[in-house]
């Protein structure tokens, strides 16, 4: 599913993803009269993009082709312009689930950073929820607000340029969930509690270092949070493939012809009709993405 209000067809003003390969994607702003240069040649927005269905294959000026995709939060996470460290899909998926986010949820977040997590939250809480996100770096706050507008999700989010540890989230008693990704989250726990509903709710804090986790857990317990737990989520991607292998030669009794009939014939292993069988193989990962951070979850009880 794409950003909330994007249709099936590419429109002037959309941010579309030019897919050159699974490790090469390029977000572009679609504009009448504009052109985009790719390694396969030029794409002319007016004729090649506007009005085409998302997912279409587009031929570039040098004859090569690309696919043009909807900008989903998952694709945005791997193609967004980085202003900060960002959260990736493995952590994001656990955060969304463990914060119990759903359409209509009211969420407070800080810092906004590059908006990677924010886009995933927005898709989950749409169409009736709201995200209050706080970022104390002015240019980052302005840039992310501009991106929310371009992605047509700005009606679902309020960006505040302030220090969450001093000034809080700018709302009181409304949040179902709070998420923190700042260096000293323990300084924001009081503000997080104040932002949350009387009926209680869930909190998550992301920290790269275990010392930050220890201080945060103490602060959460001091403020009356319950069910405090910390986890680290590591991803192992297994490569499952179908391979085709030649059948073993069972000797002269075998009804299978494995010898070439004439000297001009290709050897049996490469003959198109040489008997073979297919099988699924699974290769565990030889390398894994390393540590990103610890996720500390807690529940604010009803007050
Ligand atoms: C690691 S980035 C957040 C990345 C974000 N979760 C994402 O997925 O793109 C941390 C951000 O927190 C901001 N920040 C740090 N301390 C803050 C504070 N006290 N109040 C508001 N923002 C803060 C920083 O400026 C930075 O942009």
Automatic annotation (TrEMBL):
GO molecular function annotation: tRNA (adenine(58)-N1)-methyltransferase activity
Region (Disordered): 246-303
Compartment annotation: Nucleus
Residue ranges occupied by any tRNA (adenine(58)-N(1))-methyltransferase catalytic subunit TRM61 C-terminal domain in the UniProt entry: 64-300
Polar residues bias: start-end ranges: 271-284
Keywords in alphabetical order: Acetylation, Methyltransferase, Nucleus, S-adenosyl-L-methionine, Transferase, tRNA processing
Binding site for S-adenosyl-L-methionine: 114-117, 135, 163, 181
SUPFAM superfamilies: S-adenosyl-L-methionine-dependent methyltransferases
Top-rank EC class of the record's enzyme: transferase
Cellular component terms per the entry's GO annotation: nucleus; tRNA (m1A) methyltransferase complex
Primary localization: nucleus
Annotated catalysed reactions: adenosine(58) in tRNA + S-adenosyl-L-methionine = N(1)-methyladenosine(58) in tRNA + S-adenosyl-L-homocysteine + H(+); an adenosine in mRNA + S-adenosyl-L-methionine = an N(1)-methyladenosine in mRNA + S-adenosyl-L-homocysteine + H(+)
Any matching Pfam family: GCD14
EC number: 2.1.1.220
Superkingdom in the source lineage: Eukaryota
InterPro entries in the record: SAM-dependent_MTases_sf, TRM61_C, tRNA_MeTrfase_Gcd14
Record-level GO BP terms: tRNA methylation
Xref: PROSITE patterns: SAM_TRM61
Family assignment from sequence similarity: Belongs to the class I-like SAM-binding methyltransferase superfamily. TRM61 family.
Summary of subunit composition and partner proteins: Heterotetramer; composed of two copies of TRMT6 and two copies of TRMT61A.
Role noted for this protein: Catalytic subunit of tRNA (adenine-N(1)-)-methyltransferase, which catalyzes the formation of N(1)-methyladenine at position 58 (m1A58) in initiator methionyl-tRNA. Catalytic subunit of mRNA N(1)-methyltransferase complex, which mediates methylation of adenosine residues at the N(1) position of a small subset of mRNAs: N(1) methylation takes place in tRNA T-loop-like structures of mRNAs and is only present at low stoichiometries.
Designated name of the protein: tRNA (adenine(58)-N(1))-methyltransferase catalytic subunit TRMT61A
Species in which this protein is naturally found: Anabas testudineus (Climbing perch)
Gene name linked to the record: TRMT61A
